[in-house]
Amino acid sequence: MEQKIVIRYSMSFQRQVVSELENGRFESIAEARAHYGINGCDTVQRWLARYGRQNLCAKVVKVQKPDEKDQIAELRKENRQLQQALGQTQAENILNKAFLKIACERIGQDVDEFKKKHDIGQSMTRRHPKK
Predict the structure, then answer these.
(1) Which site from 11, 59, 73, 121 is most exposed, i.e. has the minimal number of CB atoms within 10 Å?
(2) DSSP category for residue 121
(3) What is the pTM of this model?
(4) Separation of alpha carbons 1 and 40, rounded Å
(5) pLDDT tens for residues 71-83?
(6) 56 neighbors 21 (Cβ within 8 angstroms)
């Protein structure tokens, strides 16, 4: 079993990185991380927050039209309904297969033979309606 290596950075090193970001030595947090080999994605952001320099963190601003928020909520609602319908359909399919198996056992016929004989199991698009 491999041992996990945990890297702890000293307070002076943390302050140095924050100071260099503040002074403009690095254009971005990613550049500072790459220069010093800091692996954690949020490590430097935590240092900036700890030393009161959140203004150096990139801010994410989401711009959307008023109707987009409603549209997203509607799409989420529709997605939940579709997932529920799919789950119900899958449950019904399992029950139908079980009923078919029981019915075939009672009439003494193999399920695959029954399906083949009665043209069951083919896709609806491949079937041709009888004229």
Answers:
(1) 59
(2) S
(3) 0.43
(4) 23
(5) 888 899 999 999 9
(6) yes
